[in-house]
């Protein structure tokens, strides 16, 4: 049996970038329309591995025109979210396009009432929402320097993953954390990898096949809906992704509903207080801002870890009745500087 045998099929429509002029649409849309496939989890959309999602690749990847290829990379480099100290191409995906029928999870596409989908926000509680990383920048997620810069192994060791857990890697991209966590939970555990771009999930699929990892399910999420099973998830890991949510309240609500009793959401975000973290400000968050947003949406801080070189790491749990004991956030004072790369 191949590693793909345990995963189901997704159908999707990708945008057509047939000419150089069409590549201008790269910064206007993330096209990830879920197909009609459904499961016992209702909104859960699993993805087929190894070949079943080949149709999800944007045609831009097979462009014959040299001009088109050059225009693509101009668009990629034009959307870089990092300062020159860390080269990471980020092509933006305009959130307003999520309202269009040709983009992610529209009410028309799913037969839902349009009134059920709120408007995307550009500013949330005083913070400007960052734009979404495009799949053409995915290689940056698995760059050779990432461990040295972020101490990813320390983060994973601190996370508290146990065998048999059900975990979600929110904004999983090409699976940098999805696959290690799938190995950590063992055959009796499971990991859901959620992303809004089928191209990212295709990369995750391919990497999972190469590594022989079976116990994960890619989910094609929506801008406003993580599409997770209700009350099933022990931990949701959000690494450098929450700040890109253009529907923060619906997303946090969906995440809360997916948590099993005692479940937590773990936010790992680049420190907005630290000018030495070489990331643009809109892709960073301060602890006070994180607290302002999460506590307003029914979460309480229950744990924190301050020894990563570039990032905050904060555990939040549901606070349904207001009785959950919380911890006070420690203010960043530069103490993590000793752990810098």
**How many DSSP helices?**
8
- Cα Rg: 19 Å
Q: Which percent range describes the beta-strand content?
A: 15-25%
CATH T-level fold name: Rossmann fold
Low-confidence stretches: 1-113
Question: What does this protein look like?
Answer:
This protein has a single domain (3-339), classed as Vaccinia Virus protein VP39 (Rossmann fold, 3-Layer(aba) Sandwich). Helix content is 21%, strand content 16%. It is built from eight helices and nine strands. It has helices spanning 66-78, 107-110, 146-150, 152-159, 178-185, 198-211, 248-258, 287-295; strands spanning 123-124, 127-128, 166-170, 190-195, 216-220, 233-239, 259-270, 299-305, 311-318. The strands form two sheets. A seven-stranded mixed beta sheet has the order 5-4-3-6-7-9-8, with helices on both faces. Strands 1-2 form a two-stranded antiparallel sheet. The model is unreliable at 1-113 (pLDDT under 50).
């Amino acid at each position: 049996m191949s590693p793909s045998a345990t995963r189901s099929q997704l159908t999707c429509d990708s945008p057509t970038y047939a000419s150089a002029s069409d590549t201008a649409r790269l910064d206007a849309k993330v096209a990830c329309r879920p197909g009609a496939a459904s499961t016992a989890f209702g909104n859960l959309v699993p993805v087929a591995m190894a070949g079943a999602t080949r149709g999800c690749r944007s045609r831009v990847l097979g462009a014959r025109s040299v001009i088109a290829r050059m225009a693509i990379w101009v668009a990629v480099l034009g959307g870089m979210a990092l300062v020159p100290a860390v080269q990471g191409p980020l092509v933006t995906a305009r959130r307003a396009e999520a309202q269009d029928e040709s983009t992610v999870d529209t009410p028309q596409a799913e037969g839902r009432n349009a009134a059920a989908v709120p408007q995307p926000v550009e500013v949330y509680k005083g913070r400007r929402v960052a734009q979404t990383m495009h799949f053409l920048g995915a290689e940056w997620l698995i760059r050779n320097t990432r461990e040295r810069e972020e101490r990813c192994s320390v983060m994973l060791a601190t996370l508290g993953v146990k065998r048999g857990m059900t975990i979600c890697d929110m904004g999983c991209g090409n699976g940098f954390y999805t696959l290690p966590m799938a190995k950590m939970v063992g055959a009796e555990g499971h990991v859901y990898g959620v992303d809004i771009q089928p191209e990212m999930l295709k990369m995750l699929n391919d990497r999972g096949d190469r590594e022989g990892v079976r116990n994960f399910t890619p989910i094609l999420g929506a801008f406003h809906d993580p599409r997770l099973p209700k009350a099933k998830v022990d931990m949701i890991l959000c690494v450098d992704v929450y700040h890109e949510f253009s529907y923060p309240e619906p997303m946090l609500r969906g995440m809360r509903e997916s948590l099993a009793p005692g479940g937590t959401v773990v936010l790992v975000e680049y420190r907005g207080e630290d000018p030495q973290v070489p990331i643009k400000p809109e892709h960073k968050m301060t602890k006070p801002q994180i607290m302002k947003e999460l506590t307003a949406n029914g979460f309480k801080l229950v744990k924190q870890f301050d020894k990563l070189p570039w990032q905050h790491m904060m555990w939040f749990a549901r606070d349904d009745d207001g009785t959950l004991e919380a911890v006070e956030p420690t203010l960043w004072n530069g103490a993590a500087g000793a752990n810098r790369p």
